[in-house]
């Protein structure tokens, strides 16, 4: 290649790179849950264009990454044994990456539900539990009440009235579906017909009576993240030519008037316990990379709707439901890079304090637990724990991706009392052929499993419908 051709090729590459980075810059600066980078790309010190683009791909996210060869979703699978994870040790299996290569199908007849010590009533469930303080758990819509039946007294004329020691967890929602928890502990007078739980004496006058209100943990984290968002907007992405030390994207700097004006146009509002902006709606319309605020809004919507739907069913119908609970992505994001079992347990207790009494033995209440995973702000994954069979289905829409979340899965399994988690690649993994849809596919799959707990369809019948999930999310997070 002569000098003229080299300069022309280099100039074209610089133009494309700067243009792409400018688009990425706006996405980063206005997206409160994505990191802000300061980049210096030494163009002349890297000889091959492919290497230059590799640097850019690595820094940004899977959205700008090169695509592997297309994979036929119906291709034959290599036979291999699925892996049992010992939660104390996390070592990749050679040529297996910790995930069963067989794309196991999740079928309804595959999982026989374990017998659950639960009695179903018209408006509530009563579950037998074993803790140091309590032996019963009553569940209404948005209410959990732990109590000790052995020490309780029952009104003979009204069998649904009782006096007992207990703990009450109640969730209330405002018009924008922002939750507020109420917690009470002490001696209660309970009327199950009227759904009334009254402390016998005012908590201030009685030492064993404690009542307080607390916000959901993710709401506090949301505020912290929002503060960080405001600070990150002051940062900027810079690209320098290593030869001249000249900034190549100066006219796109984060401090210029254009970005400040764009910043002022963003309208913020609080909905589903998340700080959302008008740009979140635009992200869906423009099919940009999904943010955690959108996904976690959907998680709260699914959990709230699922509980309301469940308790609208008859007693016989509820007895056959295999319920699912979703955790927000903020939970696993807050693991950080340095974590251990105690830190993970603390985060679970902060996120869902109502399950601390049963030591997060969620198999007493749910059949499945789902986790949308923001993998290093580069890619969205989904984990589905079957608490009865102890199988963990790993959904990764990108083909040929190595599992990098194995240690975290082992710790989550310990918290959920899953002794021998078996990792299995989800049958619908590896079908993404674009640069943005990983988050949309995770939301679509969560929506399928939400519906599936009531419809009981074979997961093999799942079909990804991108426009359907976009329309659903846009309706949910629209400006109040």
From TrEMBL:
InterPro entries attached to this UniProt entry: Nep1/2-like, Peptidase_C48_C
UniProt keyword Hydrolase, yes or no: yes
Name listed for the protein in its UniProt record: Ubiquitin-like protease family profile domain-containing protein
PROSITE patterns found in the cross-reference section: ULP_PROTEASE
GO terms for MF: cysteine-type peptidase activity; deNEDDylase activity
Ranges where the Ubiquitin-like protease family profile domain occurs: 274-449
PANTHER family the UniProt entry points to: SENTRIN-SPECIFIC PROTEASE 8
Segments of this protein annotated with the region Disordered: 73-100
Annotated GO biological process: protein deneddylation; proteolysis
Keyword Amino-acid biosynthesis belongs to the record: no
Domain of life: Eukaryota
UniProt entry keywords in alphabetical sequence: Hydrolase, Protease, Thiol protease
């Amino acid at each position: 290649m002569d000098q003229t051709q080299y300069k022309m090729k280099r100039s074209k590459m610089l133009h494309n790179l700067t243009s792409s980075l400018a688009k990425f810059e706006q996405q980063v600066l206005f997206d409160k849950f994505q990191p802000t980078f300061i980049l210096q790309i030494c163009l002349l010190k890297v000889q091959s264009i492919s290497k230059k683009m590799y640097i850019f791909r690595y820094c940004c996210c899977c959205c700008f990454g090169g695509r592997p060869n297309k994979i036929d979703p119906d291709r034959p699978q290599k036979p291999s044994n699925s892996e049992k994870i010992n939660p104390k040790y996390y070592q990749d299996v050679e040529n297996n990456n910790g995930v069963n290569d067989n794309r196991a199908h999740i079928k309804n007849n595959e999982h026989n539900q374990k017998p659950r010590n639960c009695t179903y009533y018209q408006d509530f469930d009563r579950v037998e539990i074993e803790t140091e303080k309590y032996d019963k758990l009553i569940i209404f819509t948005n209410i959990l009440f732990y109590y000790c039946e052995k020490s309780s007294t029952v009104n003979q004329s009204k069998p649904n009235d009782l006096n007992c020691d207990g703990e009450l967890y109640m969730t209330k929602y405002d018009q924008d579906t922002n939750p507020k928890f109420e917690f009470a502990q002490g001696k209660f007078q309970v009327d199950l017909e009227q759904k009334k739980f009254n402390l016998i004496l005012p908590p201030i006058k009685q030492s064993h009576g404690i009542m307080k209100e607390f916000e959901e943990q993710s709401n506090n984290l949301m505020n912290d993240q929002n503060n960080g968002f405001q600070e990150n907007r002051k940062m900027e992405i810079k690209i320098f030519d290593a030869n001249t030390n000249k900034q190549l994207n100066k006219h796109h700097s984060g401090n210029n008037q254009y970005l400040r004006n764009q910043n002022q146009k963003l309208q913020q509002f609080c909905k589903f316990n998340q700080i959302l902006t008008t740009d979140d709606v635009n992200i869906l319309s423009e099919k940009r990379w999904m943010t955690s605020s959108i996904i976690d809004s959907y998680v709260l919507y699914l959990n709230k709707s699922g509980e309301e739907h469940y308790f609208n069913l008859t007693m016989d119908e509820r007895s056959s439901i295999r319920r699912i609970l979703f955790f927000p992505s903020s939970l696993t994001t807050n693991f950080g890079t340095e974590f251990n079992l105690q830190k993970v347990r603390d985060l679970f207790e902060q996120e869902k304090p109502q399950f601390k009494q049963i030591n997060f033995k969620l198999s007493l209440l749910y059949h499945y637990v789902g986790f949308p995973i923001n993998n290093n702000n580069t890619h969205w994954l989904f984990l589905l724990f079957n608490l009865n069979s102890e199988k963990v289905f790993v959904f990764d829409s990108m083909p040929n991706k190595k599992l990098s979340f194995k240690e975290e899965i082992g710790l989550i399994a310990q918290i959920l009392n899953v002794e021998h988690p078996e990792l299995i690649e989800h049958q619908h993994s590896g079908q993404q052929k674009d640069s943005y849809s990983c988050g949309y596919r995770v939301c679509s799959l969560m929506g399928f499993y939400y519906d599936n707990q009531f419809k009981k369809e074979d997961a093999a019948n799942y079909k990804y419908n991108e426009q359907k999930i976009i329309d659903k999310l846009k309706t949910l997070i629209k400006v109040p």
